[in-house]
Amino acid sequence: MKTLLRKTLTSILSFEASLVLRKYKPRVIAVTGSVGKTSAKDAIHAVVSTCYQARKNEKSFNSEIGVPLTILGCPNGWSSPKVWFYNVLRGARLVLKKHSYPEYLILEVGADHPGDIASITRWMKPDIAVLTRMSDIPVHVEYFKDPESVLAEKMKLVESLSRTGTIIVNADDKLFMREVSKIDKKKITYGFSHEATVHIDEVSISYTDSAHCLPQGEKIVLSINNIQSHVEIPDIVGGHLAYPFAAAVAVASALGIETVDWNKALKEYEAPRGRMRLVPGLFGSLVIDDSYNSSPIAVYEALKTLEEVTTKGRKIAVLGDMKELGEYSKTEHEKIGEQASHVSHTLITVGDASRDIYDSAIRAGLSEDRAKWFVDSVSAGVYLRDFVRVGDIILIKGSQSMRMERVAEALLEKDLKPEDYLVRQEEEWQKR
Q1: CA 205 to CA 239: how far, in whole Å?
Q2: Could you give the CA distance from residue 252 to residue 271 in angstroms, rounded to a whole number?
């Protein structure tokens, strides 16, 4: 019954959204990839909003029901029939009466299962398609034939571009670059590659002071058309986070937004929760909160960042299961365990699949007295509250269903409220 109701709602909302697109004719910037979609979407929205009325998906509502909700300007109804009824009614009003409407929509589009993007692009044709990164073993691969099938689904977004559409693609991503080379469309590239239109010249970590030596943000140098721009983003860390900002500058270039405008927008950018966000922790520690979700390439980058940061305390990696990897799960968890053994002073693993991270790290040489395994995130948080001390840096990451934000909550500085800093603090999530 629930499945039938969801399908019916999705059909109604998608139909209304398609009519709204036809009526108001906003320009659509659609973002996809296996990692970095939400950060790119947020950075693009920050830049486009400097010159135009723009709307983006809230959080990561990037599904076949999340995209129509964004177009209609409606909230997620969760389990409330009243809210869903309101959403359908609002969609009808937008179609039947004239209302003010954004000039641009920045839509994150995900693919959890085969056909997800294809079903959306039957009625939504983007003007600009932004491709972030594909990993060799992407998240959700469990539901596809193989990784190439995931890539093919992502490329449905590009194939649906309007006749005069533009592709904005990560020049460092071999898989996406291979695919877009087959398509005759205008392309703007971004990345560390020397051939990139928007080039990432330099990425470095900024620190609080020499006494504690804790990271406080990221410094990024970008260049386009031989003009260099320096941007400092507070409260996040990680060289891979330069990609979303470079993608936003590529969009700015496509739209003719001036350097002074996009530079100002990026400097005022607010880091999204649960994505390599720096949060003050107990006893003078620092949490790198990357608890929103997880995939092999994302964990690799997060651990690489943990290795790069300097601190007088310990480096602690808290890693939960990476879900939906299917037959690749054991191998990918073992790879992470080996990497973590060389990066972290202490390794905390959470969940059944993460037992493979733990075992692999021990085999790779990590001392057993510096590794712990817990069945759930609450238990790990309880242990860590008594373990952390001044100067420690704690990286927290895991798939959404592992609820790793509960570890972050346990380690928050006493005066901070979880709802102001962490993901999944809504009432619906708290019930789960």
Answers
A1: 8
A2: 19
Nearest Cα neighbor of 307 from 296, 298, 316 is 316
Gap between the Cα atoms of 105 and 57, Å rounded = 9
What are 78-130's pLDDT values in tens digits?
Answer: 888 899 999 999 999 999 999 999 999 999 999 999 999 999 999 999 999 99
State the pTM of this model.
Answer: 0.95
Overall number of domains in the chain: 2
Cα distance between residue 391 and residue 282, in whole Å: 10
| Residue entry with tokens 């790793």 | 404
Tokens of 389: 């001390």
- The domain in which residue 177 lies consists of 2-267
143 and 190, same domain (yes or no): yes
Half-sphere exposure of 90 (CA within 13 A, CB side): 17
Q: Where are the beta strands (DSSP E) in 294-431?
A: 315-320, 346-350, 371-374, 393-397
CA dihedral 94, 97, 98, 103 (to 10 degrees): 10
Looking at the fold, whether 291 and 250 belong to one and the same domain comes out as no
